[in-house]
Amino acid sequence: MLPDIEHAIRLQLLDDRTTVLSREIAAFPKHIAGIEQRLGSHLRRLEADKAAVAANLKERKRIEGEIQANEQKISKLKGQMMDAKNNEQYHAFQHEIDFCQQEIGRNEERILALMAEAEPLEKNVKAAEVALAAEKKEVDAEKKQAQERTAVDQAEIARLKSERGAILAAMTPKDASEYERIRKGRAGVAIAEAVNGRCSKCNIMLRPQFLQELKLGNSIMVCESCRRMLYVNPPQSFDDLVPQSAR
């Protein structure tokens, strides 16, 4: 196998790995944004539940204030009843006292209803606070893990680029340039293996004479269909496909 074909195979492996790592790095911010959005949704729901509990308590306090005002009014009316000069005045005071007592009864029923409404709301708030605290912990752990993985991936990409530069430097300038040209025009894939008489990338059958010349390995040949570099009989270990300067 021609040295530059071996170099091109190794370059393709490095480029493929770099692409995978780059996509992984790009996916982390989207993943974190997704879980933070979910966390924000849960936080807003918790705030809504807390607001409902607060509104419930505020309404109960307002009604309790009305009850207290009516009780004070009743006490005052009872004192005034003692000074009533006739039955008409007495009954008028009594009627007003009865009305206040009815208002107190209605307000007390309303407070009981509000207390019943508040109980599940308060339980929801407590449960949501516990769940949110656990979710925040998970989010923080995922963010830390993503940051650590990003750092590892970036270091690996830097190493791959260094090895890539060494391989390109070891190649014939014309072949190195051709590899780069094909890679950019073929979705990042510049070289393919010929398997069972076909190009493994475009799956087009190779002409018998073309395949015979390819097997001889006297020159770099490209697929007549997709124009990618071709090779046959891959090396036993792709890890061996590195320039001496990179070992």
Q: Describe it for me?
A:
The protein is mainly α and 247 residues long. The protein has two domains: 20-165, Helix Hairpins; 173-242, no CATH class. The chain has helices at residues 3-81, 87-170, 173-185, 208-216, and strands at residues 191-195, 198-199, 229-231. It has a three-stranded mixed β-sheet. A hairpin with a 2-residue loop joins β1 and β2. The longest helix is centred in the middle third of the chain and has 84 residues, at 87-170. It is rod-shaped and about 130 Å long. Mean pLDDT is 90; it is low at 243-247.
Helix content: over 70%
Order of helices and strands: HHHEEHE
Strand percentage? under 5%
Tally of domains = 2
Low-confidence stretches: 243-247
In DSSP terms (H or I, runs of 4 or more residues), the helix count works out at 4
End-to-end separation: 20 Å
User: How is the largest sheet built, in terms of strand order?
Assistant: 2-1-3
Determine the CATH topology of the largest domain: Helix Hairpins
Overall, the morphology is: rod-shaped
Q: Mind summarizing the main beta sheet?
A: 3 strands, mixed
Helix and strand arrangement:
Blueprint: H1 3-81, H2 87-170, H3 173-185, E1 191-195, E2 198-199, H4 208-216, E3 229-231
Parallel strand pairs: 1-3
Antiparallel strand pairs: 1-2
Brief rundown of the structure:
The protein is mainly α and 247 residues long. The chain has four helices and three strands; from the N terminus they run H-H-H-E-E-H-E.
